[in-house]
Amino acid sequence: MTGLAVICRAAWPESTEDGPAPPLPGFVYSTFSPLVAAVADRCLARSHASPPADPARGPRTATVLVSRYGDVTSAVLVAEAVDAGRRVAPLLFYQAVPNAVAGYLTARWGLTGPVVCVSPVGDAMTEGMAVAAGLIEDGDADEALIVAVEQAMGSGVDSASAVLVGAG
Length: 168
Prior knowledge:
By secondary structure, this protein is of the alpha/beta class. The protein has one domain: Thiolase/Chalcone synthase (Peroxisomal Thiolase, Chain A, domain 1, 3-Layer(aba) Sandwich). Helix content is 37%, strand content 21%. The chain is built from five helices and five strands, in the order βαβαααβαββ. It has helices spanning 32-48, 72-84, 90-95, 98-109, 124-137, and strands at 4-12, 61-66, 115-118, 143-150, 159-167. It has a five-stranded mixed β-sheet, sandwiched between helices. β4 and β5 (159-167) form a beta hairpin. α1 packs parallel to α4 (98-109). It starts with a strand and ends with a strand.
């Protein structure tokens, strides 16, 4: 495959008017899943207007979620509870796995192609593009939504980017 064509892209934040990502029902304590959903919704809306995606495209659209550290907040909360011998909040079990928010997105938008979550060694978007290219080249999908997300650790701002690509 020679490359991928970018259909649309989005980021969070895109301007100073973007504050924290809006809350996401069922995902508590952490900004990770709301951030993934916000940037993915923003990107997909630029191609499909509103959910669900075009029924001719959604079933052939893969979702690739890329994050070096995953949901750091949820992982810390689970570790603290375990270390202290406390009961872990049930919602933390599923939301600590990036596939949970990917499943939420695919159900909301009607994307029924493959779902892949990876932790990159190098540049997140570059590695996400490579995964998407493989899925498209192998015929598993015609398009791929790639979401790269990292929570701010310490000081800073959570950030995410999303791109919807197809064969170039």
